[in-house]
Design a protein that fits this description.
This protein has no helices and eleven strands. The protein is an all-beta fold. The chain has a six-stranded antiparallel β-sheet, with no helix packed on it. The N and C termini lie far apart (42 Å). The model has no long low-confidence stretch (mean pLDDT 96).
């Protein structure tokens, strides 16, 4: 059985500028085709607008509030919102709240810096 404690995972900065803890992926578990990470944005912080040619993502917001932009369409998002991001879709998340914006990010295939194309 693989069980990874969140606090045992070192955070790192992704190509889009967000801080993530990769909770499970092929790099630290038997999971081979996907990854699950916790991401954090500080108040006022935005990810760099980007897209992933191969990867489809799901964002699930745990704490905070922000603005999600997908292919030019913006929407206010917050705790409990779940966002689908198809491959090739330009996207950017901005924390508009006073506290951290915390979310889970599921990627299929697993997150790779090389599959992140920055737009700005």
């Amino acid at each position: 059985m693989t069980c990874i404690q969140r606090d045992a995972v070192e955070p790192f900065i992704t190509a889009d500028g967000s801080e993530i803890r990769e909770l499970m992926a092929y790099r630290n578990s038997p999971v081979q085709r996907q990854s699950l990470a916790e991401a954090r944005l500080a108040p006022g912080q935005s990810t760099t607008r980007h897209y992933h040619p191969r990867t489809e993502e799901i964002y699930y917001l745990l704490e905070g509030e922000g603005t999600m932009e997908l292919s030019g369409e913006s929407r206010t998002v917050g705790r409990g919102d779940c966002i689908a991001i198809p491959p090739g879709t330009k996207h950017q998340l901005t924390n508009t709240g006073l506290g951290s914006l915390v979310l889970l990010c599921c990627c299929v295939p697993a997150y790779e810096h090389a599959d992140t194309i920055l737009c700005d």
